[in-house]
């Protein structure tokens, strides 16, 4: 399982970097910039698929283990910390 998670995270990181690179290059509001982004849209589709696959795996394999191992208070604390970490700033 650890190799699977590590592999997932490697793929996630690589795909996120590719998507970020496209966005970083997309400066300006010209037709050429929009066309260049559209031509590479498959990277964002791939990112969506990778995130969905990873989320399903965590929901199936990881969250039940956490539910069994953590008390209700600990789960609430971690949920709060995670929500704070991803909240827009």
Describe the protein in words.
This protein has 89 residues and is mostly helical. The protein has one domain (2-86). 87% of the residues lie in helices and 0% in strands. The chain is built from four helices and no strands. The chain has helices at residues 2-25, 31-39, 41-69, 72-86. Helix 1 runs antiparallel to helix 3 (41-69). The longest helix has 29 residues, at 41-69. The chain is elongated and about 55 Å long. The model has no long low-confidence stretch (mean pLDDT 89).
Mean pLDDT: 89
Low-confidence stretches: none
Structural domains: how many: 1
Structural class: mainly alpha
How far is the first residue's CA from the last residue's CA? 34 Å
Radius of gyration: 18 Å
Series of secondary-structure elements, N-terminal to C-terminal: HHHH
Shape: elongated
Binned strand content: under 5%
| Number of E-type strands | 0
Major beta sheet summary: none
Number of helices, where a helix is a run of at least 4 consecutive DSSP H or I residues: 4
Helix share, percent: over 70%
In short:
With 89 residues, the chain is mostly helical. Helices cover 87% and strands 0% of the residues.
Short descriptors:
0% strand, mainly alpha, 89 residues
């Amino acid at each position: 399982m650890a190799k699977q998670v590590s592999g997932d995270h490697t793929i996630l990181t690589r795909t996120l970097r590719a998507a970020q690179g496209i966005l970083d290059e997309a400066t300006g509001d010209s037709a050429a910039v929009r066309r260049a982004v559209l031509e590479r849209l498959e990277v964002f589709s791939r990112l969506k698929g990778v995130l969905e696959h990873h989320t399903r795996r965590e929901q199936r394999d990881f969250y039940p283990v956490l539910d069994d191992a953590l008390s209700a208070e600990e789960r609430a604390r971690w949920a709060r910390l995670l929500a704070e970490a991803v909240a827009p700033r």
